[in-house]
Design goal:
The chain is of the alpha/beta class. The protein is built from 3 helices and 6 strands. The chain has one domain. A 6-stranded mixed sheet has the order 2-1-3-4-5-6. The radius of gyration is 14 Å and the shape is globular. The termini are far apart.
Length: 136
């Protein structure tokens, strides 16, 4: 059985891989201008208030990346600032893979929600498959 802390680190790495995978597809000007607010939720969470922050160590993963990644709890009250509202949850399928459900919202008619298969190859986590996407 894997130790709980290692499993948590792997879960955070899988969620990080999804965000980096999606942002790699965006124009650099959008990434430079927008703040990414990221939180997690249980698979059955249906209300915005059920989204919670990841541990601080998750956000530190982006500190030297040039990406503006902040806690989901910091989203409210920021007016019209360019922002993207992310929410992710990862379930371990084996020691080297996670099923991640997640996506982002960027306004009333803007968003994307997908399932991701994230795997570890030679200690690097990456998105292997994307499936079941819903886009607005």
């Amino acid at each position: 059985m894997r130790k709980a802390q290692k499993a948590q680190e792997d879960r955070l790495a899988a969620c990080e891989a999804v965000i980096r995978y999606e942002l790699a597809k965006w124009p650099q000007t959008t990434i430079d201008m927008a703040t990414q607010f990221v939180g997690t939720h249980s698979p059955i969470a249906v209300k915005f208030s059920q989204i919670t922050d990841f541990p601080d160590s998750f956000y530190m993963r982006f500190s030297n990346s040039g990406l503006h990644v902040r806690k989901h709890s910091e989203l409210h009250g920021l007016g019209d600032q360019s922002k993207w509202d992310w929410f992710l949850d990862a379930v371990e399928t084996d020691a080297n893979s996670f099923a991640v459900m997640g996506g982002y919202g960027c306004g009333q008619f803007c968003g994307n929600w997908c399932g991701y298969t994230v795997t570890r190859h030679q200690s690097v986590w990456g998105v292997e498959q994307v499936h079941g996407c819903l886009a607005a």
